[in-house]
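Final paragraph of the annual report: two paired records, presented back to back.
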Amino acid sequence: MRRTPNAKKVKAGVKENHFRLEFMDTTLRDGEQTQGVALTSEEKLTLAHVLIEKIGVDRIEVASARVSKGEGKSLRKITAWARKTGVLERIEVLGFCDLNKSADWIREGGGNVMNLLVKGSLKHLQNQLKKTPSQHVDDITKTVEYCAKVGIRCNCYLEDWSNGMQEKEN
């Protein structure tokens, strides 16, 4: 969920800040959000329709790139429906700093928005990726540049950022 400035209006000589609050739902992405629950691609499509058209959620993250063939099948079904109904820009996929692999998987599934998961703490960076901060920034840069080249809009999300801030001395 994020709060973004929408517009400043002037009314009776007073400037007011107006914000738009957006909601992004991750229910359809397999993983920690739905422990022990395995939805079929048809169930995911039905839920995507309900979340977007009935409830009015702004954006939905529907898959994790390259996790399984089932995730790919679900992505293709959801993006076909979303393209047909004009809501494709509201369908997002979790992707990784893997240069072109996640972006290509998303494109092949009909998507065009990647939520790029980047490490926000030195602990995760060193223990999970076995990389230095400069190596990770280089991978992020190359991944984002590739996304731009192939028409994938890219949002970046810091994983474990709050823990990373605890580690920082200043």
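The closing record of the year follows.
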Amino acid sequence: MTRVYGNFTHRRLPWVAVALVLGCGEGGHATAPTTPAADSPAPVGAIVAVSPAQLRDTVAHTVPVVVRVVSATGAGLPNYVVHFTTAGTGGTVSPTTVVSDAAGSAAAAWTLGQAAGGDTLIASVGPRTTQVVVATAVAAAPARFALVSGDAQSDTVGAPLATPIAVRVTDAFGNAAPGASVQFAVASGHGALSAAVSLTDSTGVAST
């Protein structure tokens, strides 16, 4: 009887670039009433992203987000209430309401969702002046693997098995971990493997 076991080693996953989508009122100016916390010198023209210019990180990780409330001429506006909200599986944000400081800046901590893929954070002042930040969260480090196929097979001595031996590698949240290196070895009995080392594909599966 031949038994095959697998183990995986961590391989750094690629970062995925992030798109920033800017939005504001018609013509670049807010056309609906804004929400000032106190008297402000000018109406809001837009909310712009200050940091980060490009957001990228792993699932469930917390990143700082800073936006700036500006007038039509680009001057920072203090004392405006900025509301932060997430959409879809975009995780959580804290605090959800921030008053812009003397430079017009407002900051929050965004914890990305646990599922790999696109996350969205929306910063808004009033109903039509918004800043949308879109991030692609990638899987965390490989944490576990499970057998997909190939167990309990039998065949003629020297003949290849009909079904490949395959395992799926995931992170701690169940996201597929592509690019992880999986090592296969014959633990007992006799036989040979078509590949002793295999990299996981986009679904986290490696086979031999």
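Residues 10-33 have pLDDT under 50 and may be disordered. This concludes the annual technical report; the extension proposal builds directly on these records.
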